[in-house]
Design a protein that fits this description.
The chain is α+β, with helices and mostly antiparallel strands. The strands form 3 sheets. Strands 1, 2, 3, 5, 6, 8 and 11 form a 7-stranded mixed sheet that branches. Strands 4, 7, 9, 10, 12, 13 and 14 form a 7-stranded antiparallel sheet that branches. The protein has a two-stranded antiparallel ribbon with strand order 15-16. The radius of gyration is 50 Å and the shape is rod-shaped. The N terminus and C terminus are likely disordered. The protein has 3 domains: 213 residues, Acetylcholine Binding Protein, Chain: A (Distorted Sandwich); 88 residues; 108 residues, no CATH class. The longest helix is centred in the middle third of the chain and has 27 residues.
Length: 472
Amino acid sequence: MNVLLPNIDVVRCSRSEHARRLFQDILTGYNKLLRPVQNTSDAVTVKVKLRLSQLLDVVWTDSNINWDPNDYGGVDVLYVPADQLWTPNVVLYNNADGNYQVSAVTKAAVYYNGTVVWEPPAIYKSMCPIDIEWFPFDEQLCDLKFGSWTYDGFEVDLIHYDKDDVQITRENGRLVWIVPNGVDLSDFLPSTEWDVMAVPVKRHEERYECCRAPYIDITFYIYLRRRTLFYSVNLIIPCIGISFLTILVFYLPSDSGEKVSLSVSILICLTMFFNLLVEIIPSTSLIIPLIGKYLLFTMVMITLSIAVTVFTLNVHYRLPATHRFSVWIRYLFLDFLPKLLMMRRPEPEPLSVATVDKAPAFELNQSENVIMMTVLPKLGKTAEVAGQSSSSTSPQQTWFDEEENAAIASAVRSTCFIANHFRKKAAEDEWYMLDHAPSAEHSRQQTSDCLKSAETTRVTKQMWNNRFVYIW
């Protein structure tokens, strides 16, 4: 079995040898626990920069590390593990997970002039107060407060990396340095839920009564605005549309039997959307979002509409045989509410006797008119009707016998009895009067004897003159 082995030429890189020798020379006798200054009164200037790609850029100058690149074969930068160098111990003050230190151990770039550049990757979890009053049209402000946990302002001076674009002002008597665009967004991936509006940076100097030295922190402010398209289409528009359906409940007739079912269906839908809203927004008892107040108010109003609908149906289906018309209901619906709504009871209408076309009318023969003129005097209602009937009677009245006249008179009396019966029933039915107040009042005022003398006389004359009658 033949095995082919490639020839590998190992070429020793002189630059690597110089770097190894440089690493040994620099770290020999180097103490990472000591602050890298020549004098103890000097402060180490640390430049801090934040990228929204999980990177924190920290730059400082280590006076204990410097060399001449010509002595080491032109090597001007050396990568050293960060745990073997002094670090400014910059941590996130307002972190939410309790882990202040950067967990990933990466290498720092050390330059020949002593400049150390450290870019540790980190995922920072900060506490951010959320204002959900205008959800989902809300804007949030989150801040990341960085500072040295060990050293004060006389030992470590924290400044922003872009020190040339600094605006100096005072807030509450304190000197504040402001950088308008203090966060690098070049590597930021756009979010599907939030828009980054502004990223200013402020440097604060805090002084306490216990200590002479100031304590410096750099705070990165991130202004966020929520994208509203998803919530508008899937939450707000359906809720408003379903809420407007409540108006249709009062347009449905009571006999349809769907008034209560429609109201309950709307209430169930809004309850489902309210539960969905509770799951979306953060859990807080400080403030209730306006959309939550709207849904809660709408649910209360729909509940009241259901109660009103049930009361309306109860009144609509009441009968005199099962319920009595109480005094306060009569006063409320027949006296108080008409005055409040500026309603007037209609005037009593006279009995309608009018001529109509030949199509729906029945033409009376002269003999039939003679019969009516013969029968009406025998009813004995008024002397006026009798006098008019006797004066207008022709000799043809003898053609009719007494039995036929008696049958017609009995039919007229029966018709009057039926009409009076239904009028009295409508007038005495108090629940019917509540549901149809103007009609009942009109029926009550129109209840009278259908054969009053004056009215009978007018009807008789009208029938004789027109010969086409339509009796209401």
